[in-house]
Design brief:
By secondary structure, the chain is mainly alpha-helical. The chain is built from eleven helices and four strands, in the order H-H-E-H-E-E-E-H-H-H-H-H-H-H-H. Helix 3 links the parallel strand 1 and strand 2.
């Protein structure tokens, strides 16, 4: 598998090399022009990245630069992990600024952050590093058993339920939620179908994508049922005070609570698991008082 990944990574370079050799044999002046143009583009791209890097490094000491995609129409982000991380930063009251210029980080994922010149990726790893650095660990009052429950619930949400949502959105709905909830640049649209296909292939590798849509919907229901049963009448997932777990749960549920279309999970939250629906509104009111200001100003 590792060898295959390396070979796949070299494939575009091999194809480009063959194309250049063919073009060189056919028309040397055109080949030179193409190489020069590509070189200029790469130099300009490098210079712009250096300018952005300088701006990030000048954000201020201990100020988090949160790199995320453009805002959504009804939710600050269509990515549950962006909402998760930004909710944590707000909960911890950590000084931060938002950057939309480079949403994909060094690990090829979003969100990511820059802090004092250092880049960090993966929302959960970022939260753990920020919690240690700023002393914002919200689960210190929990017992070891409660911490184990919180960890298990987070894994269920971040590593299991997310695939149920993804297969519905990119498979059954074929990305319709993107068109309804965010501005998609025209030059991204041709590659969306390819992205959906790759996501669904990854879902098959993970396992959930091998089931039919009805079974996946039932898997998602069981996750919501477990969250609802555990929450009960508590204000937050682990009791009277919010913890890191609330960031994950709110991030994963916010889209279906506040955004169209009417998905099966949205219907479940509104009809069967109303305590989770009310919980999302509490989280929004407590940590996102400026919610409307964080939406895409060009929304319909």
């Amino acid at each position: 598998m590792m060898l295959q990944n390396v070979q796949d990574g070299w494939l575009p370079a091999r194809l480009a090399g063959r194309a250049l050799r063919w073009l060189w044999l056919k028309n040397k002046p055109v080949t030179i022009t193409v190489v020069l143009v590509v070189g200029v583009i790469k130099i300009r791209k490098y210079m712009k990245k250096q300018e952005r890097r300088k701006k990030w490094n000048n954000a201020g000491k201990d100020v988090v630069v949160l790199h995320i995609p453009s805002r959504g129409f009804y939710c600050p982000s269509l990515s549950p992990f962006v909402v998760k991380l930004e909710t944590y930063v707000r909960m911890a009251e950590i000084p931060h600024v938002i950057d939309h210029e480079e949403p994909m980080g060094p690990k090829g994922k979003t969100p990511w952050i820059t802090l004092n010149g250092e880049d960090m990726g993966d929302s959960q790893m970022i939260i753990e590093k920020l919690a240690a650095k700023f002393g914002k660990e919200f689960d210190t009052h929990l017992s070891q058993e409660e911490k184990a429950v919180a960890h298990s619930l987070r894994i269920m949400v971040d590593e299991y339920f997310v695939w149920c949502l993804g297969v519905y959105r990119y498979g059954q709905e074929r990305g319709r939620h993107l068109a309804l909830n965010a501005s998609v640049p025209w030059f991204y649209r041709p590659v969306l179908a390819m992205y959906f296909k790759r996501y669904l292939e990854a879902a098959k590798t993970q396992g959930i994508g091998r089931h039919n849509y009805r079974d996946i919907e039932e898997m998602g229901r069981k996750s919501l049922q477990s969250l609802s049963a555990w929450l009960g009448e508590k204000p937050f997932m682990m009791g009277a005070n919010p913890t890191d777990l609330d960031c994950s749960v709110f991030g994963m549920l916010a889209f279906d609570v506040f955004c169209p279309p009417l998905s099966p999970f949205k219907r479940m939250l509104e009809k069967d698991y109303r305590n989770l629906h009310a919980y999302c509104h509490r989280m929004k009111e407590k940590f996102w008082p400026d919610w409307d200001k964080c939406l895409d100003p060009h929304r319909h």
